[in-house]
């Protein structure tokens, strides 16, 4: 695959939010620094990136930014991290935060993460290895409601519509908050976000609104079906409990060879003698 030869994509992590729905857990701790299965949420994300060969990081911070910076700098000495601060995190949303990362990203291919998503490293491996330029990870096994970012695709898995207002009856599944954006599409995406954020009425827009605009204009996004692999977004106490039940052990950095051996052992154990 091309990403085994060329430079791995940059990791862009949006971690500016307050996480008020997780109160009181987040009253004195940023959501991304909560512990799941013995490892901090953000640590899990960064170690998964390192396991996939990704070594350049852009973190967009806002609420309790200094605490997050101190944690990352202490836990991951030597990795390349650029911090971008969203001073308006209280009255803006993910679209504004992603727009602020434009200069730090430049013309690099990147993978964008919502900092509150806990996921199996195999999801990221599939995304990094995909030959498609722009890819949204989709789970089909989700009860789709108003809160979910829904995706409609054609029979070639090309995205036709994306957003929270998409008709759930027509949707393939939910976008999980992890996407790959090509070096060619990045500048188009940031141009859309910049135009949107010229008006305060768009400050609360999610970045998916810009994806939707690009789709209408003809930019091709593909859906990557990751159904069956473990992941969860942590917005509420119920989500946090689900994540803790799903991911019970501390994270470690796992090479491709180690992951292959684990997968083969798991498959062998599940096969009847």
Give a brief description.
The chain has 273 residues and is α/β, with parallel strands linked by helices. 34% of the residues lie in helices and 22% in strands.
Question: Secondary-structure map with pairings?
Answer:
Elements: H1 2-5, E1 10-15, E2 35-36, E3 39-40, H2 41-51, E4 56-61, H3 65-75, E5 80-85, H4 94-100, H5 102-105, E6 110-114, E7 117-119, H6 121-129, E8 135-139, E9 150-153, E10 159-163, E11 173-181, H7 185-196, H8 208-217, E12 222-225, E13 231-233, H9 237-246, H10 256-270
Parallel strand pairs: 1-4, 1-6, 4-5, 8-12
Antiparallel strand pairs: 2-3, 6-11, 7-13, 8-11, 9-10, 9-11
Describe this structure in words.
With 273 residues, the protein is an alpha/beta fold. It has one domain (8-250): Alpha-Beta Complex (Spore Coat Polysaccharide Biosynthesis Protein SpsA, Chain A). 34% of the residues lie in helices and 22% in strands. The chain has helices at residues 2-5, 41-51, 65-75, 94-100, 102-105, 121-129, 185-196, 208-217, 237-246, 256-270; strands at 10-15, 35-36, 39-40, 56-61, 80-85, 110-114, 117-119, 135-139, 150-153, 159-163, 173-181, 222-225, 231-233. The strands form three sheets. Strands 1, 4, 5, 6, 8, 9, 10, 11 and 12 form a nine-stranded mixed sheet that branches. It has a two-stranded antiparallel ribbon with strand order 2-3. Strand 2 and strand 3 form a beta hairpin. Helix 4 crosses helix 7 (185-196) and helix 7 crosses helix 8 (208-217). Residues 1-5 have low confidence and may be disordered.
């Amino acid at each position: 695959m091309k990403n085994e030869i060329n430079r791995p994509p940059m990791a862009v992590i949006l971690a500016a939010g307050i996480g008020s729905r997780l109160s009181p857990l987040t009253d004195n701790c940023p959501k991304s620094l909560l512990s799941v299965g013995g490892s901090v949420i953000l640590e899990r994300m960064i170690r998964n990136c390192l396991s996939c060969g990704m070594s350049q990081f852009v973190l967009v911070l806002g609420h309790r930014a200094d605490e997050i910076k101190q944690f990352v700098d202490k836990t991951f000495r030597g990795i390349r991290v650029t911090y971008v601060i969203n001073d308006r995190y209280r009255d803006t949303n993910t679209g504004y935060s992603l727009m602020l990362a434009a200069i730090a990203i430049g013309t690099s291919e990147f993978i964008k993460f919502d900092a509150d998503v806990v996921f199996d490293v195999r999801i990221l491996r599939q995304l990094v290895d995909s030959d498609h330029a722009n890819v949204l990870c989709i789970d089909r096994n989700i009860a789709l409601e108003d809160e979910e970012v829904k995706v409609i695709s054609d029979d070639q898995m090309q995205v036709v519509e994306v957003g929270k207002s998409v008709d759930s009856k027509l949707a393939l599944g939910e976008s999980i908050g992890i996407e790959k954006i090509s070096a060619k599409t990045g500048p188009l995406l940031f141009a859309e976000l910049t135009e949107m954020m010229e008006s305060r009425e768009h400050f609360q827009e999610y970045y998916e609104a810009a994806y939707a605009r690009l789709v209408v204009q003809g930019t091709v996004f593909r859906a990557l079906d990751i159904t069956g692999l473990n992941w969860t977004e942590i917005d509420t106490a119920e989500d946090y409990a689900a994540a803790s039940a799903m991911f019970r052990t501390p994270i470690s950095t796992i090479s491709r060879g180690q992951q292959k051996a684990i997968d083969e052992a798991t498959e062998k154990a599940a096969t009847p003698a």
